[in-house]
Amino acid sequence: ARFPFIDKVLAFEEDERLTTQSTLSTNDHPFLIDHAIEGVPYHPGVMALEMFAQSALLLRPSTCLAGFEEVVFGLPIKLLKGPVVVRVEAAFERSEDDLTWVRCRLVSDLMNSKGEVFGEREHHTALVRLVEKCNDLCPFLQREVDELPTLGTPPSGSLLHPASFIYDRYFHGPRFQSHGGVLRGVGEGDLVGIDGVALMRHQLPATDQFTVEQNGEAVLLESLPMLIEAGFQNAGLVAMETLGYSSLPVGIAWSTMLRVPDADEVLRLRSIQASSGDDGTTVHDVLIVGNDDAPVLALKGLQLKAMATVEEEHRFSLQR
């Protein structure tokens, strides 16, 4: 199935704007069970990005996904009382050469105790960057490579800490455990980071993120959301080590998706903490590479915000 987050199209103006609707539920989306805090499922930010990608590609079907810009993760979507109906509003913003930008918002209705709608709540926003399909994407890919963060290439190696080291500290269940373990600490001075292993969807401890997958139906996602999630989690480890806080992502300045990895690739990632603020915010750059060190995905300006102090037994320090 393609576009699994689009249940229906509510409004459509060809090439200009599109509104889609989706009902989020643990029955249809069991990944929500594994992205819960104190028993309350939270719709993950990376799946909001996937929703944006699906709506943007439906609006502009002659394109493929290049990446995201100006991502803001705002009010979380909590499934407090069962399924939640949300909408994605996608609107053409501009085109330049072979690129198109589509502005997306994820919203839900505000309702009173009688179930009457009296407004809407905006959750997340982003610019989706699309590139026209063509026989020669080399010029586009070269431009994207030129924009990659300068982090160096994370080399292969043995795990310093297994995945259990991460998930002793994180709330994510097996359908959202996309970090395969810590390879090493990297960087020096104020620019410190971590190298790790990133897992694709089919490499997760539990792969049935959508109920239809339990029945053997394939689900195609557009934006490699679990690799973005691995970047979030790796950067969160760096912030945890340096500041002693658990953090959540609140924004991304720019991202690129250069290729879909082969199924048997072992992906490595590096995140470097570029800055930290007195308010507990940190900014990170992330690079994921595969076989032959070929880049797969990158994030620039990933912003995390501290949410809670790490318990003493979960504090750690990596050698560099």
Description:
The protein has 320 residues and is α+β, with helices and mostly antiparallel strands. The chain folds into two domains: 8-137, Thiol Ester Dehydrase, Chain A (Roll), CATH 3.10.129.10; 144-314, Hotdog Thioesterase (Thiol Ester Dehydrase, Chain A, Roll), CATH 3.10.129. Helix content is 16%, strand content 43%. The protein is built from five helices and 15 strands. The chain has helices spanning 45-59, 138-146, 163-167, 211-214, 225-243, and strands spanning 8-13, 17-24, 36-37, 40-41, 63-73, 84-96, 99-111, 117-132, 161-162, 179-188, 191-198, 245-257, 267-276, 281-289, 295-309. A hairpin with a 2-residue loop joins strand 3 (36-37) and strand 4 (40-41). The protein is globular, with a radius of gyration of 19 Å.
Mean pLDDT: 96
Based on CA atoms alone, the radius of gyration comes out at 19 Å
Report the structural category. alpha+beta
CATH superfamily of the largest domain: Hotdog Thioesterase
- What is the helix tally? 5
The CATH architecture of the largest domain comes to: Roll
CATH class of the largest domain: Alpha Beta
Q: Biggest sheet: strands side by side, in what order?
A: 1-2-6-7-8-5-12-15-14-13-11-10-9
Largest sheet: 13 strands, antiparallel
Q: Helical amount among residues, as a percent range?
A: 10-25%
